């Protein structure tokens, strides 16, 4: 077996297919772009869907990649099995309507067995195939695979619902008897079974059917190849590692983690080994996810990052590591992956900052989680039970990051078990909620073969001309058919011209609108939308108002006012993008945009909120560049030259041999195929109208330019004039001082009112405190305040506790449709098992509310003040039944 590093193996795979005429496609961001069906990029083919469904025709139908991916559907298995990872790399080669089985099967065997490449022993390879796919079996045999190494398996059919599907063939490597932990007659002891001896290393999908919406399987117009080889698995074969973790992809992380622990060593204890593996796996996923623009939060991708980080932190505690340590592993990830992902090391400082901040925040709550666990254990024992509920265990897992096994370990030390079955049910409920929350859109479209067939050339001339007097109508599509003509009776049609001034929607810029005229000057169609056809032509969706004929010539006229507004706002997004980088830092990246004629929307990555001061700096900087009247020029060049010019590439957009670089002086330089003004002064004015958070680490700015900006400021001035009149200020300039003066007056009045209410509450409480009742040997004071709030109830509870008026206090107050209850219990009775939280839970239904708190103090809120008397009586009854 050759001695190869993970980097060498990755590069060898890519170089092999490059020699077979494939284009090496860079690994796309883990954050999907323009795909609402995915939370993360979760496979190599996920980035190829647009080619397989025919919505885009690739420059080269042969492609290969090493795509980083994230899957967290079985996170509980990470570290417990040999091969589960949350972040993994999928090596793949893809054919879009080019080669098929006859080519890919011998290539696969060549890569795996040729001494020039992997050099594996052919006798150690086994292949499974779909039983009905006789052609695949014959091709493997023809390539030189022995018949007894070919195994039919019914599950070998790749199908994700509507869209391309087909049989597949999986390749297994026999790792030898030392990895055979099953009995010879075990039904799983075969290539394709659940065992460690025969390791699946490659899956080749023969995508040859369209799974239609009706549930039928129709032959694809163009057959595709989609393969997936897990890098981590292949590296474990080359490096003869028992699991994926004992390889150069993980061991440096495990060894670094060992250095943080005083006495725990990898390999000494099975439970500790799981913790080491979890940490190594999770920090890889966290590092790459943050590097690709996702940030910790309580929803979506951000929740996944937060959950991974908390699991890793808890496992660090299990290894005796106190305080933040994960952030120190980020540079180690960068060093391991630098040959293919140099960006990780470049971003290391930024990623470390975010990870440490999140670690510090979680470590501050971890003790609360342990305290809650101890309370759950105490409550379980006090109730005479021997098992912690699955609901309580899931709360510890979901809120504090406690894995089930950690809760089980704590519980076991105290002689308790955990209801794992109920925990699993809670987990499944959460998964169902997550699945239901995802987009219902189809994961992959059915191929629209008609558009793929249309290859007539079409030129966009809108950069210089918004009117074309003599455009030839090359293609007319109606009802998914090519037709010779359409008229008003057809209603809507799609048109492709030999040249057009209409911009097709792309890069956030909306499509142009306008009119189509015949040579007589008659209006024959209005353009309602323009999109790119698979072969790159501008596809016009039009409302047909007159006759249109293939081969005829027409005048195309873009709505100039609409287009001018779009141009201004598109240039504004470029200035805004650079201003954000200058003010907030280079970590900010565009996460989406919408450029319309009347406003712009710009999404960007940023950890935390944007201060008003920073937002003003951004707005001022954009306006400064507008007032400087900077020429905006476009340079058409090659991609490498564009990069040397400092051009920013957005997302993982595919750029061709020739690219357009849009420059606003030296301030902003970006790759961009959109339309722009000639000079920044044409924007007139830039005004931010809102700044909000829209997702995990994603902020959104909405803004206006030119006349809409002027109108916005006028509206703001009119509003200020109304406020000036209302507060009776001398003029607008005096309004802030007048408002401040009025707020002080209001605050003074509120303070006096609260003081009077507190005095009244104390007078009412004085009589209550002096008349306690005794129930079951415990003294209790109950009372209802005519006017008050929760703060006053707490102050009265402090007085009650200091003066020791009784063992239990239950107070209520309610006004304006709101009710409040407070329960306090002295320490002696807390130790005796009487808890304020239990009492408040038992009585709060009377006020149509709920609550909780500590054993010695709890409170509840509700919307039924009329039920306060019943709640007080219920407290007495609860004590009487205790």
TrEMBL record:
Main location: cytoplasm
GO molecular function terms attached to this record: alanine-tRNA ligase activity; aminoacyl-tRNA deacylase activity; ATP binding; catalytic activity, acting on a protein; transferase activity; tRNA binding; zinc ion binding
Coiled-coil regions listed: 713-766
Keyword DNA repair: no
Pfam family, one: tRNA-synt_2c
Positions bound to Zn(2+): 570, 574, 672, 676
Record's keyword annotation contains ATP-binding: yes
Functional note: Catalyzes the attachment of alanine to tRNA(Ala) in a two-step reaction: alanine is first activated by ATP to form Ala-AMP and then transferred to the acceptor end of tRNA(Ala). Also edits incorrectly charged Ser-tRNA(Ala) and Gly-tRNA(Ala) via its editing domain.
Name of protein: Alanine--tRNA ligase
